[in-house]
Design a protein that fits this description.
Length: 163
């Protein structure tokens, strides 16, 4: 028998070892990609909740600074209405079906916190509408209740609102 001097090729064991290393490497890369996408999704949901809260507080700030008397109403858990009682055309409906809102206000002249519940209207008039307003708004993602954002702020009016 002659020994073959030129052995160009791979044995089955070498081929299986190379495939195992390749599959392990691919599995690690895919798990990293999936983790990155999931983290990105969570961060994006948190940012969207923050933007939603900021939008609602800015609309409330505008209403507070521009109206003599206004009503805050929450007709559903995912909707808030702001209505200028003297100028009904200035009504604003805010909300997003993907979020639920928990809303509390405390006028500066009052020690009583007013929770805005579903279908409960809170009218701010007289000194309550003329001064600082302490606001707490929590926005919760309906799909994932862990994704919440709470904003606590004070809305001020420096001058009397126009008539």
């Amino acid at each position: 028998m002659r020994h073959i001097q030129n052995q160009k090729g791979l044995t089955l064991i070498e081929l299986l070892a190379a495939m195992a290393i390749l599959l392990t490497t691919c599995g690690l890369f895919f798990s990293i990609f999936i983790s990155v996408f999931q983290t990105n999704d969570r961060i994006q949901q948190k940012i969207t909740a923050q933007q939603e809260a900021n939008y609602i507080v800015s609309a409330l700030t505008k209403m507070h600074q521009e109206s003599q008397e206004y009503v805050i109403n929450q007709p559903s858990p995912s909707e808030i209405e702001l209505k200028d009682t003297k100028h009904p055309m200035n009504a604003v409906k805010l909300g997003n079906t993907g979020y639920e809102y928990s809303f509390m206000i405390t006028p500066a002249n009052s020690k009583e916190t007013k929770n805005i519940f579903m279908n409960e209207k809170v009218t701010l008039t007289g000194p309550d509408a003329q001064t600082h307003l302490h606001v707490s708004l929590t926005v919760t993602n309906k799909e994932n209740n862990k994704d919440t954002f709470t904003i606590v702020t004070t809305i001020s009016r420096m001058t009397k609102a126009p008539d």
